[in-house]
Amino acid sequence: MRLVQKEKFKGILFAFLISISIWIFSLMNSEYHFYVKVPLKIVAPEKYSISGRVPEKIDVLISATGWQILNLSVFPKTSNCIINLSQSEIINEKVILTKNDFLKNLSIAANAKALDVNPPSITLDVGVIGEKIVRVEPDIKIYPRDNFIVVGKPILKPDLVVIRGKKEILDKIDEWKTERILLKDVHKPIQLDIPLSDTLRSLVSLSYEQVKLFVVDVDLKAEKEIFDIPVTIEGGNLPEGHILEPKFLKATIRSGINKLIASDIISLEAKVSYFEITNDSIGIIFPKINLPEGLNLVSLEPPYLYHWKRTRTK
Fold it and tell me: How far, in Å, CA of 252 to CA of 123, rounded?
């Protein structure tokens, strides 16, 4: 009896597995309609550039079997849409890409069939390419280790880049930033490669993709007090009858210990412009101290000067 029941259970299990296999086989061979996102790349003709909103991806409605869907999920990056505008008609510096253009240049993984695309069309501005040299601006935050300080600004090499694009776009660009970089616990010199920002990269091309960053001078932090800093007048002399007090100030300067030792900060001056004095109406003037690069003004005592004018009365 037990042998019969065991054989019966095996038969039921076998039939169940066969049913599941047939169901899965039928499921994987059925066709389905659904949207997939496909990377879009527009190749401009030689000596031309593209402006206008170019989406990074387009939505493609495809018809695919379950097996094809499985392949798409395993190898999603093999699909793309690359359109070379050298074969397109340029009218009044514009190119209109239609659904047929997208479908004709689609490459879908797993040989799935493309039925439709969204957006159905894109209008691009195409103009003669121009060139411009701009400075590279570091977008970098540096946090030194406790009791350390970074003396001076980071150095970029090269610090200029050639950008290419439509003249109307280039006229609006005066600098090109690096990618945002955060450096923590800095306590010694650093050298690393950092990419340039990819902002506007669909509209503007660059002569290179990355630059070298040098954080050269990292030192122990130190402060020094400078006494008896004289107040001087820029652009003239103190007008007759005008009084500025006090005549000497005290400043606290911060930098690296070696920078402080090597710098000539004894000859500092607190400067006030002649224009500020003659146009002052409140009796308070803030002096300015110009420090060599790498030195930071921590405090100035007093932070402002009293100004008044002596007048004669009968």
Answer: 60
pLDDT tens profile 87-128: 777 777 788 888 888 888 888 766 777 788 888 888 887 777
242-245 β-sheet, strand order: 242-245, 305-309, 284-285
Return the structure tokens found at 38: 């496909």
Under the banding of pLDDT at 50, 70 and 90, the label for residue 17 is: low
- Report d(CA 217, CA 154) in Å as an integer: 9
Q: What is the rounded distance in angstroms from the CA atom of residue 160 to the CA atom of residue 270?
A: 35
| Residue whose pair of structure tokens reads 């009858």 in the numeric block | 241
User: What confidence category does residue 76 fall into, taking pLDDT thresholds of 50, 70 and 90?
Assistant: low
CA 41 to CA 56: how far, in whole Å? 7
- What is the rounded end-to-end Cα distance, in angstroms, of the chain? 137
Rounded to the nearest 10°, the torsion over CA 64, 65, 66, 71 is -60
Residues contacting residue 222 through CB under 8 Å, at least 6 positions apart: 254, 255, 256, 257, 260
